[in-house]
Each structure stands twice: as C-alpha cells, then as structure tokens.
Design a protein that fits this description.
2 domains, six-stranded mixed β-sheet, alpha/beta, 11 helices
C-alpha cells in the first residue's frame, strides 16, 4: 500500500515537472539562447531523476550524512513542493477562466457572432489591453513562483525553531493535592533524515529542563522505517520525570509494519507505553489516572479501546487520556474523561491564516481539531503541534511546539 502511494505521488510530481518543463521550453525557445535552454534541461533532469531512483532503491536514508541531507535532499523536497503549489495555482486559474471561456466558445460556433468577436479581437484597443493582460499574468506568475520558492525555503530552515507553550487547564473536581500537577507534552517526533539524533537530543534536554511531574509523548516516534527507532531511543533515553515518562503509539509507528519492535525499543529507552491501559499517579491520598491507547482508526475502535483503558479506574477520579489522533474527542467526552492529550495534525504544518476561530490549513479538511485547547462539556483536549514534519520537511506559519501543562482546580 505504501509503495502504491509512493508510486502515484511520484507519477503526479513527474507529470507536474513535465508540464512546467514544456511550458518554459515553449515560451523560452525564441527569447533564450541554446546554452540557457540546456541549463533548464539539466535543472529539470536533476530534480526529476531522483524520484525515479527512490521508487526502486530503498536504502536507509536516515544514514545519509547531514551535509548531503541539507545539500541534496532538502532542495529536492523544496523544489517539488513548490512546483506542486504552483501547479495548484495554475489549475485554480484555469478553473476561474472557465465561466469566461465557455460563452466565448459558444458564440464562436455561430458565424455572425464569430465575425463580431474576431473584429473586436483585431481592434487596436483590445490588442493593447490583451498585451497588458498577458504581461500582468506573466509578471504575476513570476512573482508567485518566487514567493512560493522563498516561502518553502524559509519554512524548511525554520522548521526546527520551536515554541515553548505554557498553559493552565482547569479540571473539575480536581483535589487540592493534585492542583499544580505539571505535564510536559511532546509529540510527533518522526525520527528520520529530517529529525536527526542530535536534534532529538536537544529536544530531550528542553523537555527535561521544564522539570514537570509527568512527561507525555503522544506517538509517531518514527516516520516509516523500523530502523528509525534506534536513534530515537538513544536520544530520548535521557527523559526523566518524578512520576514517570509515558507514551502511546501513533499511526506512523504502525507504518513500519514492525510495531512490536518499535514498542519494545521505546519501552526500553524509558518511555512506558500505555497500550490500552492506565496507570495511577498518586500525590498524598489522591490519585490521577493516566490512560493510554494505541493508534485507532475509527470512532467505534476508539470507543472500545477507551472503555478497555478505563478498566479499574475509581469513580470521580480525575483522568488524563493519551490518544495520538484528536479525531475522537467526542468519544472521550462521552466517557467523562477530563483531559485528552493528542498530536498527529502537526498543527497543520502548512498554515495559511491564523484566526481567533482556529487556523486555515489543509489539515482542517481532515479534522476540526488541529492545534491548541478544545472544550466539550466538562471535557477538554489539548492538541500539540508536535516537533517533527511529515511528507515535506517544511513548516510554514506553524512552528514546532513543546508544551508545559499545569492542572488546576476549576
């Protein structure tokens, strides 16, 4: 399935490259000299050929030296992501033109109206207007292309500039002994060539410096290969918290097809995985239950696993649920879970606009819960923006996040 997805995506990207190559070659044939056109050929070949290689050679990319990652892999991703965005602009532009082109096409089917339109098109005023319009479109296209590549490059270099978020979350019926309990939340690490061990070690130090009572790691320890768990485990083995370091599995951990190996290495590095179970944190005579579930793909599965994870929990005891995907907040609220901690969305990763009501990002098409705090009745959920990236090593208007949560009595 993963290979099929990779094949389809590669064919789409190659098709986009061919489209732009043909357009540029056609438009530059009369104005650019042969050496310049040759350079264009070389550039498109250099950025397209690796896509074909990646389909047939699956070497462990995380072993590549960092100079090659920054000098070769990053430019490749930036180029294709920017090309994809530009192609979407082209498609949108053509869709916008359809209401204007269809009536013109119909009128040209009739001889009388066709003659009238041809006369209009030959009029000096129209010819001058059309020349200006084409010039405007050409320069606008150049500006959009430049802005897209600039934003993508900026997003790639800024993807590791994290923000530290501190938030108090009120919990109903929270005993006084538990008020002030702190949880450090980190999510979506995605150990890979774009999240090297050295960078993960820096994040581990940041989390430790928060000195929280509990550390939560809500899934996606790796990107897609089981080998990626080893640098993750080495980097995050230093995590320490007085009441424990806990985690849950994410969907990308399952993509490895060796999830038990991933789980074993994560547990061995000191992060206790909560796999459809719970653990009690006790301060004085009061308990706070932390529940954790494996990554779930449907509301029915979520409901079932939430019930399993709640087994043995005393009534009227505050509960915190670790669930990688935030999609199932309603199921958690129906079970009176006080607080759910999730990730998965990366905060959108590519965010076009931030508003008081949330963000405008492609991730909103998948989930209404993208980043930050959400409330449903007496239940609340915090969705972390995570620290890693997926698909493309770019974050735009959406910096990585390390979060310190303080539980307080409502």
């Amino acid at each position: 399935m993963f290979f099929t997805f990779q094949l389809i995506l590669s064919l789409i990207l190659l098709g986009i490259q061919f489209y732009f190559f043909q357009k540029i070659r056609l438009n530059s044939k009369k104005v650019l000299r042969k050496p310049v056109r040759l350079c264009i050929d070389i550039v498109f070949t250099l950025f397209s050929f690796p896509l074909i290689l990646m389909l047939f050679f699956h070497s462990p990319l995380y072993l590549l030296p960092q100079w090659l990652v920054y000098g070769g892999i990053y430019p490749l991703y930036i180029w294709h992501f920017s090309s994809l965005i530009l192609f979407l602009f082209v498609v949108i532009g053509k869709i916008i033109k359809i209401p204007f082109l269809v009536p013109q096409w119909i009128l040209k089917k009739f001889q009388k109206t066709k003659i009238i339109l041809e006369r209009i098109e030959k009029h000096p005023g129209y010819v001058e207007f059309d020349a200006r319009r084409r010039s405007f479109i050409r320069y606008s296209g150049m500006f959009i292309a430049g802005a897209t590549f600039t934003a993508s490059t900026y997003g790639a270099f800024r993807r590791s500039q994290y923000e530290l978020t501190s938030i108090q979350i009120p919990i109903q019926h929270l005993p006084e002994e538990l008020s002030g309990t702190t949880i450090s939340l980190i999510s979506d690490i995605h150990s890979s060539i774009f999240m090297a061990k050295e960078e993960m070690m820096r994040y581990a130090d940041v989390v430790n410096e928060l000195q929280s009572d509990v550390i939560a790691v809500t899934g996606d320890f790796v990107n897609s290969m089981v080998e990626e768990v080893y640098p993750f485990a080495e980097a995050f083995s230093s995590l320490r918290a007085p009441y424990g370091v806990f985690g849950v599995l994410g969907n990308h951990d399952y993509y490895t097809r060796q999830v038990e190996t991933v789980a074993k290495e994560v547990n061995n590095c000191g992060i206790k995985l909560l796999r459809n179970t719970n653990v009690a944190i006790q301060k004085g005579n009061q308990k706070l239950y932390i529940l954790g579930v494996d990554d779930v793909g449907s509301g029915a599965s979520a409901s079932e696993l939430f019930d399993v994870a709640r087994t043995g929990i005393e009534a009227n005891t505050p509960t915190v649920l670790f669930c990688h995907r935030p999609y199932f907040f309603r199921q958690a609220a129906r079970r009176n879970i006080d607080l759910t901690l999730s990730g998965h969305t990366h905060g959108g990763q590519i965010v076009f606009i931030k508003t008081s009501a949330g963000v405008i990002a492609p991730a909103r098409m998948v989930s209404p819960y993208v980043a930050g705090l959400y409330t449903m009745g007496a239940s609340q959920m915090y969705v972390s923006r995570g620290i890693g990236t997926v698909g493309i090593p770019i974050r735009i208007n959406c910096p990585p996040e390390v979060t310190k949560i303080t539980l307080v009595k409502a």
